[in-house]
Amino acid sequence: MVERLRAREKLADTELELSGIVYERGVDGQGFARLRSKGDHLRGEQAISGEHIKNNKDVRELLGKSGIKPELLPPEEDIKKLERRLNSEAQKLVKSVKTIVKGNK
Predict the structure, then answer these.
(1) Euclidean distance between CA atoms 15 and 58, whole angstroms
(2) d(Cα 4, Cα 76) in Å, to the nearest integer?
(3) Per residue in 33-72, pLDDT tens?
(4) Where are the chain's structural domains?
(5) Which of 33, 90, 91, 103 is the least crowded, having the fewest Cβ atoms under 10 Å away?
(6) Full-model pTM
(7) Which of 38, 36, 45, 43 is nearest to 17 (CA)?
């Protein structure tokens, strides 16, 4: 679970960095939205889209060689729900520790 949250945070940081580079290259907000759904290579929207499509095919082929079909994998818990649940568990843990500490005084 925690690894998934860390990966999501890293992805968010990377996308923020990418958006800055893309805007510097003259791609507008709508173009960036399309790129997010397609990929990156940073030589214009068409080149980026083409590169992403190629990368997706390569990844899918590699997964297939390992016997993995993403569409057959069970869905993961929504990342926001996971984040809320982990925060809730952390708060409960803190509360428990405070109760134990108070009881030992």
Answers:
(1) 21
(2) 10
(3) 777 776 544 766 777 777 778 888 999 899 999 998 888 8
(4) 2-73, 75-105
(5) 103
(6) 0.40
(7) 36
